[in-house]
Amino acid sequence: MNIPTPPGFDSLLDYLRDARGLELGGYKTSTLSRRIEKRMGMVGAATYSAYIDYLEVHPDEFGQLFNIILINVTAFFRDAHIFELLRSTILPSIIDAKAPDDPIRVWSAGCASGEEAYSVAILLAELLEPQAFRERVKIYATDIDEEALSAARQATYGEKQMEAVPDDLKAKYFDRVGLRWVVRKEYRRSVIFGRHELLEDAPISRVDLLMCRNTLMYFNQEAQERITTRFRFALRDGGYLVLGKAETLLKFAATFEPVDLKHRIFRKHAPDQVRDRVQGAFSAREDRLERGDVSGRLRDIAFDHDPNAQLVTDDRGVLLAANTRARDLFGMRGADVGRPLQDLEVSYRPVELRSCVEEAHQRRQPVHLRDVAWPTRGGEARYFNVQVTPILDGDGALGTKIVFIDVTPQHDLQDELQRSRQELETAYEELQSTNEELETTNEELQSTVEELETTNEELQSTNEELETMNEQLQTTNDELEELNRELRKRGVDLTKSNVFLGGILRSVPLAVVVMDHDLHVELWNDVAAEMWGIHQAEVKGKHFFGLDIGLPLESLRQPLLGLQKAPDAVSETTVEATNRQGRAMRVRVVCSSVGRTASDGHGAILLMQEIAPRVH
Predict the structure, then answer these.
(1) What does pTM read for this prediction?
(2) What was the pLDDT predicted at 11?
(3) Is the distance from CB of 520 to CB of 541 less than 8 angstroms?
(4) 446 in a structural domain
(5) Could you tell me what percent of the chain has a pLDDT over 70?
(6) Extended strands (E) in 394-539
(7) Residues 366 and 388 occupy one common structural domain
(8) Which of 45, 259, 358, 421 is the most exposed, fewest CB within 10 Å of its CB?
């Protein structure tokens, strides 16, 4: 049954094949479209064409899409009962059937992250000597997911992945590296990982054991048959095939015999030439009358009442006899006896009899025609096996006997059986599809549970980090509060110092000017403001030599600049000046350095006092 594909779905598959080489044509449309649409919903793409546009703009999306299409659900010794059968029965029988030096080849198809392949390697290592294992065993593990294959080659697994591995096998076949377990190198070398598409690439040959569990169920019926045919060529005669619990080999019973049908373990038949031979051919013969004294009347009645329609012709093809059943069946009349058979309708309906009569006489043996249909008056067809037998007498031919054997009941039974088989096959396919859908759903649920567990662990880790950060913030907050207390205390001290300094400056009867090392005014006391007629706000931050206050500043340049070279020097000079109110005065100016660090340079302080003019 062909399931219509959603609009644009085929275009997306073509794009994935052309852009990334991923061939998905053999996958089941319903499963594939459901998974793709799940990813489309995550990125907000409403149609397949919109999703193609999204993939072109966001190349990283390919990886996310492949991860959701190719569900990689595997584990060490997954389905323990199957691996117990391998350990106890299957692998020992493979080893026993080989010479001591013969290679043992295993193929794990759809290996995901490699746990299944390494599990088989461990079982073989347990059954063989270490040297024999290294020399004889080759395990080929294949998948189409490059990311999963890369993880498999690393052979590194966490505690959760190692839960199914017994402690003694962990110690024997794994090394502990930090918080993870690594398969030992001498066993890892026997497992070869590679990319392989089951529908496109040639199968690995001469395999003793082929494991392909829960992979076929993702493919449609045609693809499953093609893959199974490839598996048949891959396996040696007598090799074992292990499928998933939702898969079987209904159409390959002649090639594979079930070893354990419940666990889906099969064995390839060895060639059986006897089975291929023809068993024999059907032949008929006439019973000869042993009594020569049977009356002609008895023979006529027996012939006429035979349940099978019969015709008898002579060597010239003239109808000599037709029994009651033949006359009723083919609408013949008594007048037809004595006419040439070729003139009668029965010679060509329901089947061409003339050529059969010629063939029978040429071969001198009966000719058989099977399942010849003849419609009845009610419109329903009846089916006959027609037997054309030459009547021979020594080397000469006396005539021909034509018998119509009614096989309608057998034909109806065959039709009913065929219908029942088709219905059974349809029901089985539906059941298999349901099982596959259930298995897929279970795997998706398992994958979702694992994702939720991972998310929960990440959230728990994030919560712990937030708690730690909160404690650090609380500590920082306490430190800031302590620092604020110190700053407030220092602010109070600074206010006190400023008040104290202001009081000192107000009490000094001299004009005081304090400058930084670049000679920008930092302090200008009230006496200076009164002396020169300009307030501190007008001069603060300005260069001293740029002030226009009536003081001859050039006469002070040399003393001030000299403080840069000799900070400990003190100079005193007397200058004539006129303040901004126009009052002439004589001013004594004392220049000294303000002590600062050597890296900051030295500032300067001027003390100015008006002195009485000279008396001449």
Answers:
(1) 0.47
(2) 86
(3) yes
(4) no
(5) 89
(6) 396-406, 511-515, 521-524
(7) yes
(8) 421
